[in-house]
Structures are given as C-alpha cells and as structure tokens.
Amino acid sequence: MFYRPADGHGLPHSPFHAVVSPRPIAWISTRGAGGQDNLAPYSFFNAVASDPPQVVFGSSEAKPDRDGTKDSLGNIRETGVFCINIVEFAAREAMNASSAALPRDVDEFAHAGVGKANCETVACARVEGAPAALECRLTRIVRLAGEANYAVFGAVTGIHLRDDCLRDGRFDVTLFQPLARLGYRDYAAVREVFEMARPRRPSA
Known about the structure:
Layout: H1 16-19, E1 23-24, E2 26-31, E3 37-42, E4 45-50, E5 53-59, H2 71-79, E6 81-86, H3 92-97, H4 108-112, E7 116-118, E8 125-127, E9 132-143, E10 150-161, E11 166-167, E12 170-171, E13 179-181, E14 187-189
Antiparallel strand pairs: 1-13, 2-3, 2-6, 4-5, 5-10, 6-9, 7-8, 9-10, 11-12, 13-14
Keywords: Oxidoreductase
Organism: Rubellimicrobium aerolatum
InterPro entries: Flavin_Rdtase-like_dom, Split_barrel_FMN-bd
C-alpha cells in the first residue's frame, strides 16, 4: 500500500501515529501567569540535544478559550517555563485522566488525583513521585504547517531522578516501565532492554 497524505489513506483510522511509534510521553506541567497549574500529556516529544540538554514537543489542536492553542502552550507563552514529567506504567490512568479537554481554570493535578512538588529552577509544579522530571526554560516556539501546530523547544535547567530508579549508577527504566504512545488507542510499557555497542571506527 502507498498513499499520499494529501489524498487520504482509505483506512478506518490514520496509520501515521502507528507508523511513528513507540513515542515517549511528555507529561507537561505548566503554570499560567495568574498562578493556575496545568498538567497534560503530549506524545510528540523527544530529546534533541544532550550537551546542553534540550527537548522538543509538538502541540496541535486548539481550545476555544485559548486563542488558537491549548493550555500548556498558552501558559508557556506567558511564563517561559515548563516541566516534563516522565510517565511510569503505574501512572497510566492518571495520565489519561489529565488528557481531558477541561476549561483553562481547572487544575488537572487535582482532577487526576496527582500530587504536586515544587520545581527547583523554574516557577511551576512537577508531578510528585514521577520517575524523572526535566525542568525547562523555553528557547523557541516554531509555527508549523497546519491550523494549530507548533514545535516548542526548551533548555533543560534541572533534572529530578527518583532514587529507587537508580541501580548500579544507571537510571534503569525497567524499574518503573515508562509508558509509550502507539497508534490508535494503543500504548506500550518498556519492560525489557538490550545493549548493543557501537561499531568501532576503522583504523586509518
């Protein structure tokens, strides 16, 4: 099968999200200029550089009370900061609950029953007890093709690691089983890993 996205695929559901998977989930916490906290998951997310550490996430769709975008991006525009919380398998139901399209004055932490903790380097909350959290300062917002598509880049200014996720000096994802987004309504949890060494550079 081959199709051009502009022409449609003819299937019951778009396969694009299933093709580009698994995708890590950024559970993004933000705080508006007025002090209102927000928490929402985004699966178009990844690290884009390591020295210094930098991340990107994609925001699409819009809410009627947010002037062409969603609460997370609206808050980031106001304050210039955000926190990416890593989602463990045990938090899957709370993460899903926080994805509801709620009015901008509703605190998703409370709605989903998620505890809050303070960030150290930025002025917003983070998910209490998350396996890891990346405190970020906005570096740029890039407008993408499409009605409400944006790429949001951030520099990581602080990193929280839960102590019980460290084993032998390494952050071991199998200890908390990070959640990943697939296509349709599907998710996956990382329970197994394997190691491969890079090929050695040929001698001159």
